[in-house]
Each structure stands twice: as C-alpha cells, then as structure tokens.
Amino acid sequence: MSAQNSGNQYPDYPVPNPALDAQPFWDGTAVGKLLLKRCGDCGETHYYPRAICPHCFSSETEWYEATGRGTIYSFSVMRRAPVPYVIAYVALEEGVTMMTNIVDCDFDALAIDDEVEVVFHPIDGGFSLPLFTPVAA
Amino acid sequence: MARPCKAYIAGAYEHPTRHAVEQSVAQLHAEVARGALADAGLSKDDVDGYFCAGDAPGLGGLSMVEYMGLDVRYTDSTDTGGSAYVVHLGHAAEAIAAGKCSVALITLAGRPRMAARGPLPDYGNDTPDIAFETPFNQNIVNNYAMAAMRHRHEYGTTAEQLAWIKVAASHHAQHNEHAMRREVVTVEDVVNSPMIADPLHRLDCCVISDGGGALVVVSPEIAKSLGARHWDRCVKVLGQGEAVKHTDRGRIDLTYTGGVKSAAIAFAEANLTPADIDMVTIYDSFTITVLITLEDLGFCEKGQGGRFVSDGNLISGVGKLPFNTDGGGLCNNHPSNRGSMTKIIEATRQVRGEAHPNVQVPDCTFALAHGTGGLIATRLCSATAILGRNDA
Ligand SMILES: [Zn+2]
Fold this sequence. Notes:
The complex is a heterodimer.
Chain A: H1 23-30, E1 35-39, E2 45-46, E3 61-65, E4 69-78, E5 85-92, E6 97-102, E7 115-122, E8 128-134
Chain B: E1 7-14, H1 25-40, E2 49-51, H2 62-68, E3 74-76, H3 84-97, E4 103-110, H4 112-115, H5 140-155, H6 159-173, H7 187-191, E5 195-197, E6 200-201, E7 211-218, H8 220-225, H9 228-231, E8 235-245, H10 259-270, E9 279-282, H11 287-297, H12 305-309, H13 328-332, H14 340-352, E10 366-374, E11 380-388
Parallel strand pairs in B: 2-3, 2-4, 9-10
Antiparallel strand pairs in B: 1-7, 1-8, 4-7, 5-6, 8-11, 10-11
Zinc ion binds next to loops of chain A.
C-alpha cells in the first residue's frame, strides 16, 4: 500500500488554539518562520515554547528563528485514516525535537534519521502549520 | 517471617459486562463497588475512603460518594489516565498507614463502546501542549506507533516479536468466558491483520469495551477482623511506585517509560527483585506498551524485549513470565479506555490462587501489576504495584 501526499491530498488539520505565551510561535509560522525559545540565563533551547524556562525557571526566555532543518527521530504512517498521513518527531538542529507531519514525499521510502526541512502549510483561521519534507539528496 | 505491609486488598471485582447497553456510568461504578465489598465481606457503611479518577462522573469523587450513599473521611481523585488505579492503590495504602481511612474503595467504570468517544480526551484549551500536538493529527495509536518505530530502529524489534504479546494474551483469553476476543491467534494472524499506524497492526491494539472494576483496600487490623474465609484471601500490597515521564523540554527519548522509576520504587519498598515475581499484569494498550514496560521493569535488558516475549515466554504454563492471564486489554476488556484496574484484579486472582485453572500460576506468591496512563510518546504516568500472598 503505497501512499504519499501531493496536490490536495492532505488530511484535515485541526486549528491550534494556542496559549497566550505561545502566540508568537504561530505569528512566526504565518510568515514562514519557525521560532523557538531560548533562555537568556542558562542558554538552553526548549520545546514547546514557554514563558518560563523549563531548564532553570528563568523568565528571561527569548524567541529566535530556527534553521528549519533536522532529522526524523521517529514517525508513523497513519494508514487507517480518510487520507493517510505521517506523524513524526523531528529532531531540529537546535537540539530540540518537535511533533509534526512529514509531507510531499513517498511515505514508504521514509526512514528514521532522514534529513528533513520545514515547509509551512496554511490551514484555516490564518494559521500555518510547520510541517517537514525530506531534503532532496 | 511474614513480610510487613501497610494494607491489604480484601475485595476485588470485575464487571462481567463488555457492552453496557442499559446501565449508566454511575450505576456501573456502584455495581462494581457492591461486587468488591461483597468479595471482601464488608458493607458500604464500612467504607471511609473513596478513590476514583476521571471516568467517575461529577467533580472528583463527590457525585459518586453521594450516588452510593457513602460517608467518607478521605477522598482522592488523582487522575493519571489508565494508570490511575495503581496510583490509587498506593495512595490508599499510604492513607491507611497514616490513619486517614481504614476501608478504601477504588472504582473504575465506563462505557466508551456505547458512547463512541472521540480519539483523544479533551483537556481544554489551557493545556499548554495541545496546540503543538493536536494540529498534527496525533491520536492514541500513532503516538504509541512512534515509540514502536523508534524501538525497532534502535534495537531491531520486529513485528513478529510484538505479535507474540498478542498471541500470549489470546492463549489466556480463550479460558475467560467474559473476554471480548476468545479466539487463539498466531503470529501470522497479527502481522497479516490490517496496518493501522506503522508498525502497529489491528491486532497489536487493545479492544474497546464497556465495564469496570473495583477494589477494597483495608488496614491490617480490618483484614484480620474479617474472619478466616476472607482473611485467607486478603492480598498484601507490598510495594508501589509511580513516576511521570514527559517530553523533557524537547529532549525526547521514546525508548523508555516512567516504569524505570516506578518499578525501582516499588521493588525497593517490597524488598523484592524481578526474579522474585511469579507473574505480571501489564496494561497492554498496544503490544509495544508491554514490550517496553517489561524492559523498564527489569525483566530483561533494555532492547531485549523482543527476544524476551518471543516463543510463548509470556504464556502461562509455557513461558517463564506469565502475563495478563485474563487476556488483558488486548483480548479481554478495556473499560473506560483505562487498563490498570483490571490488571490489579487479575494479579489479585493469581495471588489468591483463584485464576482460571488453565492459567493459574502454581504457587503464585508475588505478582506485579503495572499501568501506563497518558500517551507513551508525549506525557505519561507509570505506576507499579507489587502484591503478595497473604502468607508471603
Ligand atoms: Zn534557563
């Protein structure tokens, strides 16, 4: 059972309802930027982004733009769905791992450790989802 | 010399229904409470502590305390999802040891099969993680599937190895007249069943059922006062541990669960090791849940779970470590989508020597019951309880 998405073959994506301290993340994706949060005190990046650093509890957290590149930490092709899709964890170059989807590729050719890069997929409500696609070899 | 313990399981009851067409959820809670109290030789007026989780209707335990007409001086509605009842068992033992109550009632009941609930519970928009997971169409099965994919990648765990877990459960379920799936299946049956979310097939997933279960946990003084017939059936709560594991600020590691910590705490309290355990009951939401848990509990090395479960090693009378001898969630039932209550109940049956004769572990002295609540690839609470025979 080969599967891939292209054209309109994307699943319906639920619209996020972000908390106040995460709104800048979604403001970023809407204009094509993947923003992360780093702590001004301990220097560590965390994910998902929060107002208070979960490494040291400092409130001096700041947004910065990620490279948008990473590798697949794990994934699963969701076959039993109206439109199959790939849920994944992508390990970003910045050292944090985020949940996402892998899109625009042959799902059956995917493997853990594959290099991927972010693509922004507009959905309802003015939101844009940070999804990932394999980097062309 | 007999081992000390803070509390005993005096009563245990599993609802026979798997499809509650006519009963309300509150009624199911009351029915299992009645069953467990009768099993203990106690009445509802003896209950002075009540424990429940989010499956109980109403605010905490308040509505159910009222519905059942209880008069309690202690209540705990800690909700850690499917592991909550192993958590409650430990909390009840602690409360009893502290003198806060002496007869603790724990209930679980639900009718997800009738209600056809959505794919994931809704914890509300203030939950900080939701916006970073829900939009990507995370659901329960693909969340667990990601843990299975990572395990396969790191340790070479195969679909056939995972399938052995379902095969073992099915061997046990054939003897359980109440089990939803009593047919014995083979490794081939599992790997040839439809793929749901790679690498999990339909038969790697547990059933959805209505029903419930209840426990009555009592102080040593109450246990000894119940008369010989009940006292002999009282089961020692020898140790319990719980641990929350999560996405660790973005440093995600899907190869282990909170079971590493919860088991260490429980074994230390019980002063036992995995080698002492005669059988286990492990919340088997999916086959991968059992495999990773067995490693975390210390029954085999990390990464060796696939080898450990193969060739019938989990089948009672065949392998070294009988597991889920009632058929577990994979075959028997999964009331309210929360699997750890029925795990404690089957472990209790085994330690009492009251399991079905075809699956009863001979001379079962120590049993371990374990629950995983929440989602394995995001945030979860693992809870481990070690039970001992009355004379252990
Ligand atoms: Zn910090």
